[in-house]
UniProtKB/TrEMBL annotation:
This is Hypothetical cell division FtsK/SpoIIIE protein. One of its GO terms (molecular function) is DNA binding. Residues 481-528 are annotated as: Disordered. CDD domains: TrwB_TraG_TraD_VirD4 (cd01127). Residues 237-429 form the FtsK domain. Residues 485-499 have a biased composition (Low complexity). Keywords: ATP-binding, Cell cycle, Cell division, Membrane, Nucleotide-binding, Transmembrane, Transmembrane helix. Signal peptide: none annotated. SUPFAM superfamilies: P-loop containing nucleoside triphosphate hydrolases.
Length: 528
């Protein structure tokens, strides 16, 4: 049988001739569409420009210099009179657009090629597009859309190159968006605006990421303590204001359903973290909704100044400290028996308060304790509290200098961890989790001149956030000890307390005034 040769079929493509008038109409519509789009997008520029043209046409072109002078005088007066609103509405929006065009768009393509973050298919080069740029006193927040095959980890390894390419020394990489919480809408259009917020903020966008180029360090200055008027009578355990984030927003710790581990070298500011939390809880301590059971193995040198804030206070004897932990376990067991089957989360009340077990130096009760029986007793009590006490309203706040597993055996039972200045880079991952230092938690590089500065994992995000806790002075502590004393004083068996310096109070029982906040508000407003 003869083999049949394949037949070749030639396809002829049809060529359509487009009239010139159709091309002109299409170009006109395209130019009109782009013009309207640019006018609406940059309305801050097009709006005043249209207004000036209309005024020049109706009143004469000689009025335009007068309008410019009046506008300049008004803006200058606005900046002098109210810097915060001027920065929100004028300075930072304009600076964001300027930096987006002049700094990032001009150097984006060569930076992507130099850092190896662009891809090529044939002769076509692709690089991640910039979605938005938002400037603030802390730096520039640049939103980027990832290319196919890229992950945020790909960019984390290039953070140093990106920082120096755009004139900064530090660039942080975050997956998705940051600080985009939906607003609470009300009124007739509240339902429509709430839907728009859910569409804009609530959607998970794994193809987007955020670069934060740090240009100003708001944490280089001490953060003033919150004033007495800002301390609520009933503290919100899910949002305790204790400091400041790197972007200028308030740092709020979630104490509800968690335990807190504070790790840092000597002089790193662990006392700032402890007293910031106590100051946020002061209103609940005075009303009886919160009880603080304090343990200070350092002989009371850190916590004895606030003696009247504590319902239990042990500092002079290790067996007394073990007794305090055992009493906390007994309270937890009693609540288990009483609340089982009725509720899943303890609700604080004056007759049944939230208990905060505060341990200033955890290693002194575990690794450095020579009495094996007493150490086993303390470790057993801590293990029970850390594994079962969260839902029953018994929370543990512990500070430690050495976060190694040999020192803190139950380190993984602390959901919330604060990493202050460390002595070794390996300790960062021990405290904040594996890969934390690679994701930007440079706790081993914090200078000794910045006590209270550290890193935390917040908002259920894997990337650590740089924070600084409030600066609590001795005057603040004496004022808290006078004004927010607990209604249930500690038993006499806790030992004698070193004498305290008297704090002058006025007729209403108010003590010393808080630190001035003028410098703090000036820095947050961007006037550096």
């Amino acid at each position: 049988m003869a083999r049949r040769e394949p037949q070749l079929v030639r396809l002829q493509s049809s060529v359509f001739a487009v009239p010139r008038w159709a091309l002109l109409v299409g170009l006109m519509f395209r130019a009109l569409y782009r013009g309207v789009r640019l006018a609406l997008r940059y309305w801050r520029v097009t709006g005043p420009a249209v207004l000036l043209v209309w005024l020049g046409w109706r009143a004469g072109w000689q009025i335009i210099p007068i309008v410019f002078l009046l506008a300049a005088a008004g803006l200058s007066g606005w900046r002098i009179g109210h810097r915060d609103s001027f920065g929100v509405w004028v300075k930072w929006p304009w600076l964001s657009r300027w930096r987006r065009w002049w700094l990032y768009r001009r150097g984006w393509e060569p930076t992507m090629r130099g850092c190896g973050l662009s891809t090529a298919h044939g002769s076509v080069q692709y690089w991640p597009p910039i979605l938005s740029v938002k400037s603030s006193p802390a730096g520039d927040v640049v939103r980027v859309r990832l290319l196919r095959g890229q992950t945020p980890d790909t960019w984390s390894g290039k953070s140093s190159e990106l920082a120096y390419a755009f004139g900064t020394r530090l660039c942080r990489v975050f997956s998705g968006r940051i600080n985009v919480l939906p607003k609470i809408r009300a009124g007739r259009l509240g339902v429509l605006m709430a839907w728009w917020d859910r569409h804009r903020f609530g959607r998970d966008r794994p193809t987007e990421m955020t670069l934060v180029f740090v240009r100003g360090d708001l944490l280089a200055y001490a953060v003033p303590a919150i004033g007495p008027d800002s301390i609520p009578h009933t503290p919100d355990l899910s949002s305790l204001p204790v400091g400041l984030r790197e972007d200028g927003s308030w740092l709020r710790i979630v104490l509800e359903q968690t335990h807190v581990l504070i790790a840092g070298a000597t002089g790193s500011g662990k006392g700032s973290v402890i007293w910031s939390i106590l100051r946020a809880l002061a209103g609940g301590i005075r009303s009886g909704l919160v009880q603080v059971w304090a343990i200070d193995p350092k002989g009371g040198m850190e916590l004895a100044m606030g003696r009247r804030l504590f319902s239990r206070f042990a500092y002079s004897s290790l067996p007394e400290m073990a007794d305090v932990l055992d009493q906390a376990v007994e309270v937890m067991r009693e609540r288990q028996t009483r609340l089982a089957g009725s509720v899943r989360q303890h609700v604080p009340a004056p007759a049944d308060p939230t208990i905060v077990v505060l341990v200033d130096e955890l290693a002194a009760l575990t690794a450095y304790l020579t009495d094996k029986d007493l150490r086993a007793r303390i470790e057993a009590a801590l293990a029970v509290l850390l594994s079962q006490g969260r839902a029953l309203g018994v929370h543990v706040i512990a500070a430690v200098q050495d976060p190694r597993k040999e020192v803190v055996k139950f380190r993984d039972l602390f959901p919330t961890r604060v990493g202050l200045r460390m002595t070794e880079d390996e300790q960062v991952d021990m405290v904040l989790g594996a890969g934390a230092r690679k994701r930007g938690a440079l706790a081993d590089q914090i200078p000794a001149s910045l006590p209270g500065v550290g890193y935390m994992v917040l908002d259920q995000r894997p990337e650590p956030v740089r924070v600084r806790f409030t600066h609590i002075t001795d005057d603040h502590i004496h004022d808290m000890n006078t004004r927010y004393a607990t209604p249930t004083p500690a038993p006499a068996s806790a030992g004698s307390v070193p004498p305290q310096r008297n704090t002058p109070v006025d007729g209403n029982g108010n003590g010393s005034e808080p630190l001035p906040v003028e410098l703090f508000n000036k820095l947050r407003g961007g006037d550096r």
